[in-house]
Amino acid sequence: MNVIIANRQRTKKINLRLLKQIVNELFAELKIEEGELGIHLVGDKEMARVNWQFLRHEGSTDVITFDHLNPESRIQNPELKLQGELFACIDEAILQAKKFGVSWQAEIVRYIIHGVLHLLGHVDHRVAPRRKMKHEENRLLRALSRRFSLAQISRTPKISV
What we know:
Elements (H helix, E strand, L loop, with lengths): L1 E7 L7 H14 L4 E9 L1 H12 L7 E5 L13 E9 H11 L3 H16 L7 H21 L14
Parallel strand pairs: 1-2, 2-4
Antiparallel strand pairs: 3-4
């Protein structure tokens, strides 16, 4: 699995090494062995630009997923293969985290999980599939939260005394 994470925002410092480990563990949990994923961590202005340019939607949003393989569902395929890009908005994660009483770091991991599930063929535009997708998203976030301290995604500078 090839994962490239680009931090293109300045709102929060990000521990990219830890985030990549979390994403690799997500792939292990989903039994994804082959594929490529680009993750772009962006601010609200860039997310609004991407949202308008590709989807013709105004304003920022939490996550946008681009599937670079055939869009047909691969949920039942035992030989999972994935190729795509995710744009995840740090500013939206901060806003949503306050709204739901969770950490922004957990929100960013949730956005990545959500995007990967879309790449695997999950859909969320109808009630029943959205419920199924949300259930899987919650399960995966709990599993990753048990293995990693998501708060450490936020890099804080070490202070020497």
